[in-house]
From TrEMBL:
Enzyme Commission number(s) from the entry: 2.7.1.180
Record Pfam families: ApbE (PF02424)
Residues in coiled coil: 47-74
Reaction catalysis annotation: L-threonyl-[protein] + FAD = FMN-L-threonyl-[protein] + AMP + H(+)
Cofactor: how and how many bound: Magnesium. Can also use manganese.
UniProt keyword annotations, A-Z: Coiled coil, FAD, Flavoprotein, Lipoprotein, Magnesium, Metal-binding, Signal, Transferase
Name the UniProt record assigns to this protein: FAD:protein FMN transferase
Species this chain originates from: Rheinheimera pacifica
Length: 332
């Protein structure tokens, strides 16, 4: 450092180069990976970022946690004051105005419903509401058959001025299939705005990578759906999103049947045929919603859908424990 304040007898350009080199050297000496695990949106989250300023890192990690909590307050079905709860209470009686942010996420959910012919449907909650996986509860046959009739994304009417109305009583919505990915994407944007260029953020099964791991790709593991301590695969990734939906996250088994948290809107019962689906692509909101969607669609229809979506790929693990890769991942 003393060198920098001495008059330089070299040509100006060389002095500048030496000064920049020294500055970079001191900065690199302080730079490091900062990490933190935290609980949010009913799941475990983890953040890792590279910074040359540990104070800034601490602040940014707090900001990310606050952003998750803000989204939780807006979209949680368990918080009575959330906009989502307000919709579930009021929107069948009268049009309800929500924030532009909520309205836009409802629009994105609707697009994925249209794209998937209703496999992704936030009104799954009309019947999903009767399941309680922790307490091993499920609706009986008559309740399920009645509630199932209220599952239809078209019943969520998106009107003018961020106003929403449900077409009939009995309709309930839940953003559990998209909100976590949205929160991850928003948080990564926040880090990028503050000059961070290398980070990993993961919440439950939704992960977003910003840049690479400084000179090498991030290695993201896909859990083995039946063996907790094993990976089914590892993917080297940079600057992209990856989400996994599995039948092993929230479930209970009764009489040999696995009741898990991804419901087929057609039946109001847990989707069958796959153990997990992983989706990669640019945007975590999209990979989150698509992994849930493909899980419902199953291998054949799910593969057909993902092949149509530019920049997105998938890995399916079937009930027969076979892995299937979409074309973007199977090319050498
Ligand atoms: P996780 O929440 O474990 O990351 P997913 O991203 O696969 O898992 O999302 C599962 C969640 O999506 C469920 O807990 C529920 O809130 C919601 N969900 C379940 N079935 C559907 C469906 N058919 N369409 C939209 N959302 C769904
Ligand atoms: Mg999902």
């Amino acid at each position: 450092m003393t060198f920098l304040i001495q008059p330089c007898r070299q040509p100006a350009l060389i002095c500048f180069v030496i000064a920049v080199f020294l500055l970079q050297f001191t900065a690199t000496a302080n730079a490091q990976w900062q990490q933190k695990s935290f609980q949010t949106l009913g799941t475990q989250a983890y953040i890792e970022l590279w910074t040359e300023d540990s104070k800034q890192a601490e602040q940014l990690i707090n900001d990310v946690q606050a952003e998750f909590e803000r989204i939780n307050q807006l979209m949680s079905p368990y918080i009575a004051s959330s906009e989502l709860s307000l919709l579930n209470r009021e929107a069948a009686k009268k049009p309800v105005q929500v924030s532009a942010e909520m309205y836009q996420l409802l629009q994105r959910a609707r697009q994925i419903s249209q794209q998937s012919n209703g496999a992704f449907d936030i009104t799954f909650a009309s019947v999903g509401f009767y399941y309680d996986y922790r307490n091993h509860k499920k609706p009986d046959e008559t309740v399920r058959q009645t509630a199932r009739q209220y599952v239809n994304y078209q019943s969520v009417e998106l009107l003018k001025n961020n106003t929403v109305r449900f077409a009939q009583p009995g309709v309930k919505i839940d953003l559990g299939g998209i909100a976590k990915g949205y929160a991850v994407e928003r948080s990564i944007a926040l880090l990028a705005q503050h000059g961070i260029s290398n980070a990993l953020l993961t919440a439950g099964g939704d992960t977003r990578l910003l840049g690479d791991k400084r000179g090498k790709p991030w290695l993201v593991a896909i859990k083995h759906p039946r063996q907790d301590d094993k990976y089914a695969a590892q993917l080297p990734l940079e600057n992209s999103a990856i989400s996994t939906s599995g039948d092993y996250e929230r479930y209970f088994i009764e009489d040999g049947v696995r009741y898990h948290h991804i419901l087929d809107p057609k039946t109001g019962q847990s989707a069958t045929g796959l153990l997990s689906v992983t989706v990669t692509g640019a945007d975590t909101t999209q990979t989150d919603a698509l992994s849930t969607t493909l899980f419902v669609l199953g291998l054949k229809q799910g593969m057909a859908l993902i092949e149509q979506i530019d920049g997105y790929d998938a890995i399916f693990i079937t009930a027969e424990r076979q892995m299937h890769f979409s074309s973007g991942l199977s090319q050498p």
